[in-house]
Amino acid sequence: MGRKNRTRQRAQQNRDGRPEGKRNRDDAGWGAGYSEIIKENKLFEHYYTELKIVPEGEFEEFMEAMREPLPATIRITGYKSHAKEILHTLKEKYFKEVQDLEVDGQKIEAPQPLSWYPDELAWHTNLSRKILRKSPLLEKFHQFLVSETESGNISRQEAVSMIPPLLMKIEPQHKILDMCAAPGSKTAQLIEMLHSDMDIPFPEGFVIANDVDNKRCYLLVHQAKRLNSPCIMVVNHDASSIPRLYFDQDGKKDILFYDRILCDVPCSGDGTMRKNIDVWKKWTTSNSIHLHGLQIRIAVRGVEQLAVGGRMVYSTCSLNPIEDEAVIAALLEKSEGALELADASADLPGLKYMPGITSWKVMTKEGQWFSDWSEVPTSRHTQIRPTMFPPTDPEKLANMKLERCMRILPHHQNTGGFFVAVLVKKAPMPWNRRHPKSLADVPPADGSSADTPVECPLMDGVCYCSFSSVTELHIDMRCSVCSSPPPPKKMKLFGFKEDPFVFLTEDDPIFPPIQAFYDLSPDFPKLNVLTRTHEGKKRHLYMVSKELRNVLLNNSERMKVINTGVKVWSRNNDGEQFGCAFRLAQEGIYTLCPYIRARIINISVEDVKVLLTQENPFLSKLGDDAHTQAKKLEMGSIVLRYLPDPQDLDAPQCPIDLCGWRGKTSIRAFVSRNECLHYLRMVGVEVFRDKQGKRNDGSTETQEESTEDAEGLSQEADLLEQEGEETDRVSNSAHALVSEYS
């Protein structure tokens, strides 16, 4: 890898501004070394005082806020009905218990909802990791946060990081690209928005989440997998040259343009000083100057792939206009009217922000200022570029409406610093305007075959006027006849070699026993089922949406796919004697259930408690109704379904589907430990373990019931292993990193 590519990769890996190998303060607690960092940087204060991004008279307040620890913020994730149940548990139990507590003389402030986040699904609190572990009541809250985070129902996410997805106005049919996605908190928001209607197992839209760093892609996979969506694909590319993709539409191969793009670019991260306090001593304007070019290239690549009428949200966790307004201004100027800054001021009522600025200067790390490109000496032209300055034409500057950009300052709502802008594409980009709508519409320029290079009469060099090999389109390297670029370079692959994604055919011999055993409905999309091996027995079956299948089949040689699909069945050889070698997987149960018409047992709240607290209960332990249903079924994999009763407001008001196994005389649920704890809380059972690992939930159950309950939970991993349950493990580091509370 060349030096430039390594620099670019390091920049994208460290988009939050911290050096490689460093953990932020939230990851590490108040670890060694941080106490030695003095939160002072005179150059930083001088720079932002001069730029006047902070309202007059507020700069001291701004600096004081920057020196204060960042409050913890959590977001309730998952799909709507389940999110409401989590919110109810938080408000009625945990938040009430902590609001009047004092720890070491410090009064614990009751968590408060973020005023601008819809439906009270995001909260902030002054609780630190250290405080969380000092009180038994807070320890229970801590355990709740850990298990709910692991099961995908709560996400520890900085408040300002939640803003970009909300401004994208996602609808279930949208095709979405997240260009610099790791670690994945924003990606999770995008997936949730696609699945806003739980009754639709396969939304028409999808999310393609990309990151340049192969290792961080696996952390991204872990985050996305918690939501169990068939509509997410994780890919591994340099965002500034992410390949153009194709898909089949009405018998023609068309170029894939995205309805929504999230462009959260690598940045210097000076808005994160409250949590990444090593930025205080490392901050210099050189960081912004070095990243400016990469940020423009990524943003240009984004708008090239945006559909006309689509929205791209550009964001950074930097306050520096060189990374913010300067990039937006360069994009608008290059677009020649094809792009427009949208007014998002009314989209998030309650959010306080400063409008974008229209005048700024560039400062070197030595403190030398330049107000205009004409002032920059020739010796600095390679570092300082014309696009770093505001446009000099007053009319052009006014037409850009840069004041529609949004800069969030830390002291206004006790957050980190952030910048966000919403761009709407009104027409094709100027360098794409002669780009054909469909590849099939473009014959070879001289009647030659698609693989024959054709000399371009108006440009030096060679092009493929047939577009047969085109994967990228560049501004300054294109054929003036057909707008195609030079022949693409062979894609370089780094990191782990992934297993293949192999789609099954409709007549695959796997399907008949599955179809018969579960009585799948005729509209079950067999073609959406895939496996990860060409040869041998298929261990797991996965499902993707129809649209992602289309993308995968048409671009397998063009992109590096890390992961896609949700697991729906796993092989269980013992099941063959009962008629089906594949048992249901909990990960894909909500995707599969609309198509399953047999092997379903309707259960009550009390049945849920029995199934999740007892190791292997006899059928007779179920309620009469569930017991009668279970006796009618043969042994094998089953669905255990709870449907809410609108008249019983104390019971969960959302449906619950659990995978299970009907044995000879017993029944059991196959649910991971954290999901088990989640569903128990939903039905009113609080599970808490003290530091010796003993159960202590404050309930009034008998000693016998308590012992039985604890045994059922502690032996769950063994139960899953006995029945062949296998959890997808993306990487040890991903599991270590994903829960900042644990």
Characterise the protein shown here.
It is an enzyme of class 2 (transferase). Strands 7, 8, 9, 12, 13, 14, 15, 18, 19 and 25 form a 10-stranded mixed β-sheet that branches. It is globular and about 85 Å long. The chain contains 24 helices and 31 strands. Mean pLDDT is 81; it is low at 13-34, 435-490 and 695-742. It is α+β, with helices and mostly antiparallel strands and 742 residues long.
Q: In what range is the share of β-strand residues? A: 15-25%
User: How much helix is in the residues?
Assistant: 25-40%
Unreliable spans: 13-34, 435-490, 695-742
Seen as an oligomer or otherwise, the chain set is single chain
Q: Provide the gyration radius in Å.
A: 28 Å
Distance between the termini: 36 Å
Structural class: alpha+beta
The 3D shape can be described as globular
Number of strands: 31
Total helices: the number is 24
Protein name: tRNA (cytosine(34)-C(5))-methyltransferase
Main location: nucleus
GO molecular function, one term: tRNA binding
EC number: 2.1.1.203
